[in-house]
């Protein structure tokens, strides 16, 4: 029996020692984000003091790692700049040593390596595109594992994960038209355009989501038409013999088939789905998401201005204004799901991800394209509300104590945290911050998402920032992090973002490549796969990766300025889109005229997607702190 007593004693001793170490060095999950940082005892004593005082303090917290769902407490504050806060309590002080190591690692990117990555991105695109054309066309998508085409799920109409997107109209071919031009393949672009003209019809008994048909199909047709007919010819002489605006006619035909979604709604907010042949299905629900209803203005607006027909822009703008008018009077925030008949918010969650993301994006991009001041006023007010109610962490990105900034999901009426996850779509937001001129905060937020990528080699669809673990584990080859990486590189020209792009490119090649393309990751940890390659992988993910490494691309060298739609389609910032052929139809609408920028006025406080002039390039260099932060965080996120 003596040996049993010895074993029991050793076990108890080990438990006691573990408890002491836990108490002294971490306080469990509240600091899990940083537990691989070099730590000292002073930091942990301070954490203990903060932990004790937190039970009594009513001050706003500048940390989010130890926050759960809030119960009416104030939140979101931080140490003011140049205050008496002890910089020693910030995690930044742990990066003072070894900066040279990280500067050497990230501050250069050889031209030969850049050329290699550019070639790798091009090969990635063509491997997916050519296999789609070989095994799937004219169907909508490629199943890259089975090497077969995929169309709508006609046997299960309720399968909206498939049927919202696939309309039996050669989706992937249409969605990738302008990518072929970006890669410099004029001959294949011409062949693809002819195939679309000769084979695509929207007279289909397909029920699709208005939002998806708009951004993937309508946006691509408009982009390809503009690039084909652009007299400035950014890609050289790409005119197509006998082209007679067929892509524009197809775009109008599709838009007309989407218009019934805007009929018979009390608010002007559209139904989420239409049947391309029969209009709104009789069993349609009266609920839609904010992004779905409020992200139509760019494509519909350009189409109206190309055709001289106000109808499309008018219905899209009416929907945006209706959503905006239903925002909370207290916080200025919008929810994520609304009843289109009553205007009541069915989903009260306000965030930056699914259901909300492109609504904010299109407020700013509509202003850049059309010059309507009202669009920017809405965006600016929304951005202020986001900063006031969703942002957690310290006030300054790179100084002060507390956790780095994070944007959480909150209740639209009171700003209280609703859950502890973020989703991968939110990774678009640093790119939008770049367009708005808030580059420093874009740098900081981008580092957070890249840290998650570095840990998993992908972005899980949902990530729990409190548990430091994925909530939803799949990754469908989304482009948002790549897009933000590209825009940050254009804004800063810092080689760090080339390293990020290389990491993403190599991860995709290693973890998602299969027999006939690139497959959705079913599980970001074990890297199991699903047999689907969504069209945005070719239209966005590959495009942004290629442009990141192609400094001499016509989009970067042209004197013209361009912007990307939310599906990554290229459209010029053109004076003709600042004019309305129908302005005289509304002589009594003074706001319509007063709020329009003059055509020769540049968008205020925005940078363009293709090129940032040297005098406006963001001068603040990336500190080694960001780079080391990422390397240190990946083991814990």
UniProtKB/TrEMBL annotation:
Cofactor(s) essential for the protein: Ca(2+)
Family annotation (SUPFAM superfamilies): Seven-hairpin glycosidases
InterPro entries named among the record's database cross-references: 6hp_glycosidase-like_sf (IPR012341), EDEM1/2/3 (IPR044674), Glyco_hydro_47 (IPR001382), Seven-hairpin_glycosidases (IPR036026)
Catalytic residues identified in the record: 212 (proton donor), 357, 461 (proton donor), 480
Keyword Membrane: yes
Membrane topology: Single-pass type II membrane protein
Subcellular location: Endoplasmic reticulum membrane
Main location: endoplasmic reticulum
EC number(s) reported in the record: 3.2.1.-
Alphabetic keyword roster: Calcium, Endoplasmic reticulum, Glycoprotein, Glycosidase, Hydrolase, Membrane, Metal-binding, Signal-anchor, Transmembrane, Transmembrane helix, Unfolded protein response
Region (Disordered): 591-610
Sites where the protein binds Ca(2+): 566
Pfam families for the chain: Glyco_hydro_47
GO CC list: endoplasmic reticulum membrane; endoplasmic reticulum quality control compartment
Biological process terms in GO annotation: carbohydrate metabolic process; endoplasmic reticulum mannose trimming; positive regulation of retrograde protein transport, ER to cytosol; response to unfolded protein
Domain of life the protein comes from: Eukaryota
MF GO annotations: calcium ion binding; mannosyl-oligosaccharide 1,2-alpha-mannosidase activity
Top class in the EC scheme: hydrolase
Family affiliation: Belongs to the glycosyl hydrolase 47 family.
PANTHER family (UniProt xref): ER DEGRADATION-ENHANCING ALPHA-MANNOSIDASE-LIKE PROTEIN 1 (PTHR45679:SF5), ER DEGRADATION-ENHANCING ALPHA-MANNOSIDASE-LIKE PROTEIN 2 (PTHR45679)
Function: Extracts misfolded glycoproteins, but not glycoproteins undergoing productive folding, from the calnexin cycle. It is directly involved in endoplasmic reticulum-associated degradation (ERAD) and targets misfolded glycoproteins for degradation in an N-glycan-independent manner, probably by forming a complex with SEL1L. It has low mannosidase activity, catalyzing mannose trimming from Man8GlcNAc2 to Man7GlcNAc2.
Official protein name in the record: alpha-1,2-Mannosidase
Protein source organism: Lepisosteus oculatus (Spotted gar)
């Amino acid at each position: 029996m003596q040996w049993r007593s010895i074993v029991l004693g050793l076990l108890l001793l080990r438990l006691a020692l573990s408890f002491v170490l836990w108490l002294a060095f971490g306080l469990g999950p509240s600091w899990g984000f940083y537990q691989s940082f070099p730590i000292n005892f002073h930091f942990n004593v301070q954490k203990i003091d903060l932990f004790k005082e937190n039970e009594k303090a009513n001050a706003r917290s500048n940390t989010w790692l130890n926050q759960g769902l809030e119960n009416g407490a104030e939140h979101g504050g931080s140490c003011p700049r140049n205050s008496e806060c002890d910089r020693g309590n910030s995690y930044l002080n742990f990066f003072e040593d070894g900066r040279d190591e990280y500067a050497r690692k990230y501050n250069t990117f050889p031209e030969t390596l850049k050329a290699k990555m550019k070639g790798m991105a091009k090969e990635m695109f063509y491997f997916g595109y050519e296999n789609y054309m070989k095994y799937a066309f004219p169907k909508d998508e490629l199943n890259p594992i089975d090497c077969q085409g995929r169309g709508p799920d006609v046997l299960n109409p309720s399968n909206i994960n498939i049927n919202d997107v696939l309309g039996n109209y050669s989706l992937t071919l249409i969605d990738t038209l302008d990518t072929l031009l970006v890669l410099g393949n004029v001959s294949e672009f011409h062949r693809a355009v002819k195939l679309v003209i000769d084979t695509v019809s929207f007279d289909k008994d397909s029920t699709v989501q208005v939002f998806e048909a708009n951004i993937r199909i309508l946006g691509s047709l408009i982009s390809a038409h503009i690039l084909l007919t652009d007299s400035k010819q950014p890609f050289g002489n790409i005119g197509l013999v006998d082209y007679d605006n067929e892509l524009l006619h197809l775009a109008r035909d599709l838009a007309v088939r989407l218009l019934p979604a805007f009929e018979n709604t009390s608010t002007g907010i559209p139904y989420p789905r239409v049947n391309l042949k029969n209009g709104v299905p009789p069993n349609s629900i009266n609920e839609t998401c904010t992004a779905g209803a409020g992200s139509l203005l760019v494509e519909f607006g350009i189409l109206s201005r190309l055709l001289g027909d106000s109808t499309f822009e008018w219905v899209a703008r009416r929907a945006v204004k209706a959503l905006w008018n239903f925002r909370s009077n207290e916080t200025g925030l919008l929810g994520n799901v609304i009843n289109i008949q009553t205007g009541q918010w069915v989903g009260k969650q306000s965030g930056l991800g699914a259901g909300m993301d492109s609504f904010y994006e299109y407020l700013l991009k509509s202003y850049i394209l059309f010059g309507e001041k009202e669009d920017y006023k809405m965006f600016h007010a929304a951005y202020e509300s986001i900063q006031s109610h969703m942002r957690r962490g310290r006030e300054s990105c790179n100084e002060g104590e507390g956790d780095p900034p994070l944007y959480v999901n909150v209740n639209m009426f009171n700003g209280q945290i609703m859950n502890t996850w973020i989703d991968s779509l939110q990774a678009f937001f640093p790119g939008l911050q770049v367009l708005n001129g808030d580059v420093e905060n874009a740098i900081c937020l981008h580092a957070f998402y890249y840290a998650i990528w570095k840990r998993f080699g992908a972005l899980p669809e949902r990530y729990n920032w409190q548990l430091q673990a994925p909530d939803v584990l799949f990754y469908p080859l989304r482009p948002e992090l790549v897009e933000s990486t590209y825009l940050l590189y254009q804004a800063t020209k810092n080689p760090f973002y080339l390293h990020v792009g290389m990491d993403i490119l190599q991860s995709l090649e290693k973890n998602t490549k299969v027999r006939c393309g690139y497959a959705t990751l079913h599980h970001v940890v074990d890297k199991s796969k699903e047999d689907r390659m969504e069209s945005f992988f070719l239209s966005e993910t590959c495009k942004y990766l290629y442009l990141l490494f192609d400094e001499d691309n016509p989009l970067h060298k042209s004197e013209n300025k361009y912007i990307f739609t939310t599906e990554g389609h290229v459209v010029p910032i053109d004076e003709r889109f600042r004019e309305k052929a129908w302005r005289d139809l509304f002589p009594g609408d003074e706001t319509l005229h007063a709020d329009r920028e003059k055509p020769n006025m540049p968008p205020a406080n925005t940078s363009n997607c293709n090129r940032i002039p040297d005098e406006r390039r963001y001068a603040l260099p990336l500190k080694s702190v960001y780079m080391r932060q990422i390397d240190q965080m990946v083991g814990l996120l």
